[in-house]
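Cont'd.
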Amino acid sequence: MNGIDLVGPQFAVLIAAGLALVVDAVLPRQRRLIPFVALAGLALSVAWSISWVARDDYQTAFGGTLVLDRYAVFFYFVFAGIAAAVVLASIEWVERAGRGQAEYYALVLASTAGFMFLASSRDLISIFIALELSSIPQYILAGWGKDERSSEAGLKYLLLGAIASAVLLYGMALLYGFTRTTELGGIADAVAAGGDANRSLLILAVALVIAGFGFKMAVVPFQMWVPDVYQGAPTPVAAYLSVGSKGAAFAVVTRLFFEGLGPGVASDDWSMIFAVVAAVSMTFGNVMAIAQTDIKRLLGYSSIAQAGNIMVGLAAISVAGEEFVLGASGVIFFVAAYAFTNLGAFIAVIAISQRIGSDRIADYAGMWKRSPALAGVLALCLVSLTGIPPTAGFWAKLYVFNSAIRADMAWLVIIGVLNSLVSAYYYLGIAKTMFVAQPAEEATFRPPLTLSISLGVAAAGVLALGLIPGPVLSAAHDAAETLALVY
Amino acid sequence: MGAEQAWLLPAVPAGFFILLALFGRYLPRQGDVLGVLAIGTSFVLFFFVLADYLGIGEGTDTVLKSWAWSDIGDFSLRFGIAVDPITIVMLGVVTSVALMVNIFSIGYMKGEARYYWFFAVLQLFAASMLLLVLADNLLLVYVSWELVGVCSFLLIGFYWEKRSATEAAKKAFITTRIGDVGLLIGIILLWREAGTFNIQEIIHAAENGEFSSTYLTVSMLFVFLGAMGKSAQFPFHVWLPDAMEGPTPVSALIHAATMVVAGVYLVARLLPVYEVADHTMIVITLVGLITAVLTGFMAFAQTDIKKVLAYSTVGQLGFMFIALGSGEPAAAMFHLMTHAFFKALLFLGSGSVILATHHNQDMEKMGGLWKKLPVTGTTFLIGSAALAGVVPLAGFWSKDEILNAANTEWGAWALVLTAAAAVMTAFYTTRLFIRTFMGTPRDRHVYDHTEEPGWVMGGPLVFLAFLAVVSGFLVFSGVGSALGFPGGVTEFVYLHHPHEYSINWGLAALSLGISGAGIAIGAWMYWGNSLARSTKLADSYPAAYRLLVNKFYFDEAYQWGIDRVVLGFSYIVSWFDRNVVNNTGVDGSGEATVYGGFVLKFLQTGRLPNYAMGIALGVVGLAFAGIMVRG
Amino acid sequence: MVPLENYLALSGILFSIGFYGVLARRNAVLILMSIELMLNAVSLNFIAFAAYLDPDRIIGAIFAVFVITVAAAEVGLALAIVIRLFRNRATSNVDDAAIMKW
């Protein structure tokens, strides 16, 4: 029982996934219940996480391959929240798609459990398995739609994802060869003890690992799949990919570079490279986004730019010294803020496109007149993505930029701020289209109840994090400190 | 209720904003009364703050109150309020003008679509502006700085059915955003060295020489960039005249009396730092001078009543920057206050004219309206005289202070330029008044349908006219003592140099001469409904006239620059399209071709092997870079 | 005994051939086979390291088993998606699956 208790939050999610399939088989007439089974499982997971927070007794499990610490629990909350929002946002769409309702939710839950395992893994093997547990359901989900675009998205995502996995594994194999262990603490010791012998082998190994995770984080030059897959995949799935898979990748990379290749060990070599990747990703994503006419594609490019922003925090972590907790907490907070913001934007897009049947930005003209609530929330989320106060995105950017400044990378911050200016152009361009252009038709509409709820939660989150960031920031800070405790 | 509770001033309108935005449309009268109530409460609270503040010590201390915002490790942020004389002046200006504008809007906006939304955004604006002036740290300043920008964007674009309104809103937002980014960079740079956002602490750090001199200069110039953008100083002056597309009460509140002076306020706040930073004071002065002179010329040839006032506003803001650059925050704040009253009066007056003539803004169709609009006409005359600097109205005293400051600090050349700008002000103000209210009607139809709006609009005009007459007297020690702050406003608002007001008779005479000359030229040229003289002048210098009508071609030059950049890209892309890609998937819409994809876009071929190649190159690149860095 | 370097070189060559196949092939099934080759190179690496360097000689082998398992799952899924594509568009050429670009 103790083992199950330690993975309780994941366990609850997986049970719900199984239960969804059982309900489908046993009560075929009660399919409407399935999403609520999923939500109940997520609620149980959250409750379990809360109980761990209350117990404040963090420990490792399964021979040290998994660890239950504040860092992991923080992400449990984030991923459970993401999954709940995606489930709520999917109900309409899945019912319309008509088939395999139970499987859809089971896959979402399974990959959520994968994300949670990723956040708590402290061993290369468990990292790999958790990564695949989260990825394989995503490949299926991306190809869930019946149209050509969706199957193309699924194919591209799967094949490129498999290549990225192979690259990642090759890196892990070299790391294992170099350190003779797969456990992150052991890796840290071996790397520290290894001195400069075979250093280039280590560098090659780390480069391959970064490339493998870079695919999931969607940073340049591993980002090419992003716009195609976001555009082709069903919109709820695109929402899920944009926040879940990116967040989990950053969660695991932060832990890997903290605990395994931590400050003073190997990651100092990488600070500058992370910084350059961050700068290139921001610039590339923003410049490309300007040229887009499809909102899902635009959000895809914007998510590349945002990944660059998060990576600024990663570049700051790598610098040894007192500031490294700052970079890590910046990354963590950014992931949480980004989850609310981007989900809000995507859910608004889902609601709008269900009504107008188009993803073209031009068709959003005058949306404010047709559905003030939707346009308002979408605009709020776009403002947050731009990083304008008083929204979550402002604090997120401020925090990662702050950590970069402390790490003496003012040039990176200047690039980041200039990029915010560029991004304002297209984010606010959408807002302008919605608020000031003439609508093609006048008929007003309201989003369905489930979407309204998830939209309301996302908007409230964006504003709450924007107005009182304190509690979540301290939680992020504590989470980052548990990583630092290893030293 | 004392100065420590000054945070209530923004909190009340903020609460009402939420109420109005959510439920405004269901309330009786769409909640306009609640709007007035909200800002009226703030106005009343202001007097409590003022009384409490004047009661404390010498009346020059700063009242501070702050709360932890986020306190994480060694990165701690506090937000708080600071009440000092500069803040007090701003609070008074913002609450009084906002109250008048709210009342006026009940009449002006009657029957408009989205009536509740207008009042809701007005509350949000008032809250953000009050927060901006109360903030004790630069981060909070930045937050509210952006918020007032958003409100301005929403209100300029209020008539979004009109294409010009949406264009103007966009232009205003983007132009000021360039400045905003400068401000943010400046704040970050200051914070990096000082380790704090707190304004007082930054001032201390600067005075104790904790910054290296070049670093400080660069950071402060970035901050000044933000101020230039918000206060529409050259070369960012282009957005303000276009912003006149918004409803006229908005022009009065945001684009004359409050938001646009945020830049002046910020520089005044940080003036001790500017004084330490090398070369920044002369930059501020020069920007102010150039703006004041340039916009004086631009206002000559405008025939839209609101545009004349807009250029005049930009020019007057230039005057304030001259005062700041000359190291006289007191003069700048004094002029800020008097200007807020008389310019709000003029804008509301023009709003009254526009409404009375059924949305006509063209002076060429007016004339002789005084008879039809006695209240508006009389108050407008008072406002114009104050703007022109006629003794003893408010504008005379504050402009005199600025001439004095420029003369003392920089000498004759600055005095001459400032004086020239002042002559032009008096001239175009005279032209504005004569062409609108005097002579004989030029458009019978418009004239016959003109009628005086009711007292809901007349009342605020009279109140502001009263302030435009008397607020100048605050400069006298006697008046100040009677009200509780001995030494008058220039001694009340001081940072380093308490500046006792003593009249410089020579300058006062000059100042009087300036306004007299300007008015005389204006009257000579436009008296009695005749355009003969001005037409003759325009005909004899056609090139100069064209230059003025086209506002020195600034908009065209900017447009040209933007076109070169954007179209340059799209030429490259279209060439690439024709010769390389052939089957582009880009939609044929105009927007798509203009932005039609920077060359980069074509990296994204949609083909899987190319994407895999990206991964391969990335791996090789990372490994290579890693080995290079490792050396 | 065969030196470790030989295994590593073989693994590196296999991986590179696999990657080349991914880049050069247009048929989705052939790309899948190339990916398999890459994964096999990885497994070879793990087992070689386990045999030569790891005192327990076991972790690498366990990792290899997991890699094989996951690879099997991925291939099964990939074939299903390729068949879907083939039904939709009567092709398994990945160049034809490029309606979304730019």
